[in-house]
Recover the amino acids of this structure.
């Protein structure tokens, strides 16, 4: 199964076999990710981190991953302090940076930017989010979280929040369709899942259910995946507050859920999950953030050819 030198742009081209291989590799990395073991697997390797949008978890988990494996980080830093502020194109930036590093992690506000970068790069490009497009490494850590905390085959999962612009849920839907998931979609009509994505994942084997509120779906699911409602998408603040209040989880919301039901969130959250939920056994979003480290360690080791 070839990963060396491969770009990681989206989940649409991933087979279940390839996903399972990454998840299994990540499991072997957990002790290193926790600092319980040392590794020099990527000694002498350099990861270039190019983030054109703000990030905490994705950026830091990639940096942690390469450092835990004995490699080094080359960080673009502020876009304003780089040649990009002078008008340098993304293609030229990539042509330069691929001479400095063994792989490039790219986050960009424009959909399709990672694909464009891959066409000019001599080293693997790992898409860390491109606009409303794809976020494959987030999807892989989400799958890993589900595998470690619940189960994947035949999962019942509800996706709630911004399903129109939320790139995390777009990628996750494609991947879950490979595991025969039943996916319940919960969102305001302004932010519903695009029809083309629904059609694609149904054709790939997923069962889709659409609901108006979390209360209508939460008692029957194994996983509830919350996302932030993006206030900036609503020109009328009163409409935002009306929607946001309908899509909020409190301790009271959980009184009839399955004992093992897990709540996930790609973070950052605003107020869609009450802080009191954090201490319940259902809260899984901080574990989810950690699981990004072994997944990204596995990906870096695979695309850099240190492991097969």
């Amino acid at each position: 199964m070839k990963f060396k030198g491969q770009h990681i742009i989206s989940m649409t081209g991933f087979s279940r076999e390839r996903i399972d291989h990454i998840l299994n590799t990540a499991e072997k990395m957990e002790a290193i990710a926790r600092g319980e073991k040392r590794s020099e697997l990527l000694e002498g390797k350099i990861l270039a981190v190019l983030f054109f949008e703000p990030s905490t978890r994705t950026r830091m988990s990639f940096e942690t991953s390469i450092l835990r494996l004995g490699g080094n980080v080359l960080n673009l830093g502020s876009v304003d302090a780089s040649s990009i502020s002078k008008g340098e194109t993304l293609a030229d930036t990539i042509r330069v940076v691929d001479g400095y590093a063994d792989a490039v992690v790219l986050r960009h506000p424009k959909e399709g930017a990672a694909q464009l970068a891959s066409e000019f790069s001599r080293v693997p490009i790992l898409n860390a989010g491109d606009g409303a497009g794809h976020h494959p490494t987030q999807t892989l850590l989400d799958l890993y979280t589900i595998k470690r905390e619940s189960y994947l085959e035949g999962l019942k999962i509800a996706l709630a929040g911004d399903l129109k612009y939320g790139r995390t849920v777009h990628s996750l839907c494609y991947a879950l369709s490979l595991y025969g998931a039943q996916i319940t979609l919960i969102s305001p009509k302004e932010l519903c899942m695009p029809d083309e994505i629904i059609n694609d994942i149904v054709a790939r084997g997923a069962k889709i259910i659409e609901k108006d509120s979390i209360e209508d779906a939460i008692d029957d699911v194994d996983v509830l995946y919350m996302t932030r409602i993006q206030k900036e998408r609503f020109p009328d603040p009163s409409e935002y507050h009306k929607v946001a209040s309908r899509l909020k989880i409190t301790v009271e919301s959980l009184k009839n859920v399955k004992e093992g039901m897990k709540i996930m969130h790609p973070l950052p959250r605003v107020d869609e999950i009450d802080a009191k939920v954090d201490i319940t056994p259902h809260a899984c979003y901080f574990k989810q953030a950690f699981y990004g480290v072994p997944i990204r360690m596995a990906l870096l080791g695979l695309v850099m050819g240190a492991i097969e």
